[in-house]
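Example for tutorial group B:
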């Protein structure tokens, strides 16, 4: 049975939101063919036969908003640049690397923080309201699901919208820390840069020169770090256990826009497969979980999610 949207006015409001979205040019979305009628039918059937779906999202949702990812063919950062993301241990051990990180992140934050959700984010938030979505796990740190209104949500790798002290564990908003950086660097400014992933930008050593990183304002000398999971760090055990329960509770898993190359997300595909739960994957290109999928569609999320029908009984 198809789920109904709660009211006709809700459906109209969702359509209005989608129409007025300002989406950046899709510079970071790999080429993909439009979904065929058969592919649409297959995903519709998956949705019709499962009513308690756990959704796992990845960078493929954010690339449609103008945020580059790492692994997309030809357009991902690994394909375009000799780029290595910040490693947790490097951030901890090196003040120079922290300085480089915060300078680049500070320069990129105004644009990054203004990124708007895509129609995919609003659709998932609306599906949650209908009761179709059991829970959303996102590997993204851009807070776009929350901006779109999702509440049954776990940001698996944290959010760039919060900053924490590694000494006293106090947490402040990223906007507040951005203001502290600005206060400490009143004359530092760069305008010419290329954006990277997760709010980062590319700066030269010369551009970074003179930049200062403010310490924690609570304990006065603690190192501040975005409240995310850097490469080389681990998701908290309590979070993993909570999400394993969500896998147990769901009747199926829908993966949207993820290559599943990072184990922190892939583990939930393995868990669902072990429990013999149906798995559908919508992603441009191959994924690590394809062999476990009941259904794999090599299409863009934004080309197929909007045509799913939740209005008929």
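The residue assignment follows.
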């Amino acid at each position: 049975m198809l789920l109904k949207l709660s009211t006709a006015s809700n459906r109209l409001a969702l359509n209005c939101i989608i129409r007025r979205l300002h989406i950046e040019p899709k510079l970071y979305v790999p080429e993909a063919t439009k979904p065929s009628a058969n592919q649409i039918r297959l995903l519709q059937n998956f949705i019709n036969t499962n009513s308690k779906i756990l959704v796992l999202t990845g960078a493929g949702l954010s690339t449609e908003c103008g945020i580059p990812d790492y692994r997309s063919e030809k357009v991902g950062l690994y394909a375009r640049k000799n780029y290595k993301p910040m490693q947790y241990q490097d951030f901890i051990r090196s003040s120079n690397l922290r300085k480089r990180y915060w300078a680049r992140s500070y320069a990129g934050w105004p644009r990054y923080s203004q990124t708007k959700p895509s129609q995919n984010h609003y659709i998932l938030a609306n599906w949650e309201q209908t009761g179709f979505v059991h829970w959303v796990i996102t590997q993204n740190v851009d807070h776009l699901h929350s901006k779109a209104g999702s509440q049954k949500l776990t940001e698996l790798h944290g959010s760039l919208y919060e900053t924490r002290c590694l000494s006293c564990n106090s947490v402040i908003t990223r906007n507040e820390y951005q203001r502290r950086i600005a206060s400490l660097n009143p004359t530092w400014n760069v305008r010419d840069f290329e954006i990277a992933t997760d709010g980062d930008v590319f700066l030269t050593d010369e551009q970074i020169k003179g930049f200062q990183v403010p310490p924690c304002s609570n304990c006065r000398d603690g190192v501040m770090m975005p409240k995310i999971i850097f490469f080389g760090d681990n998701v908290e055990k309590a979070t993993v256990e909570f999400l394993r329960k969500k896998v147990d509770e769901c009747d199926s898993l829908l993966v949207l826009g993820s290559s599943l190359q990072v184990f922190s997300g892939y583990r939930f595909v393995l868990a669902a497969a072990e429990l013999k739960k149906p798995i559908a994957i919508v992603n441009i290109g191959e994924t690590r979980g394809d062999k476990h999928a009941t259904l794999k569609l090599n299409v863009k999320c934004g080309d197929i999610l909007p045509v799913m029908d939740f209005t008929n009984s």
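Residues 95-113 form the longest helix (19 residues). Compare this with the pattern of hydrophobic and polar residues in the output above.
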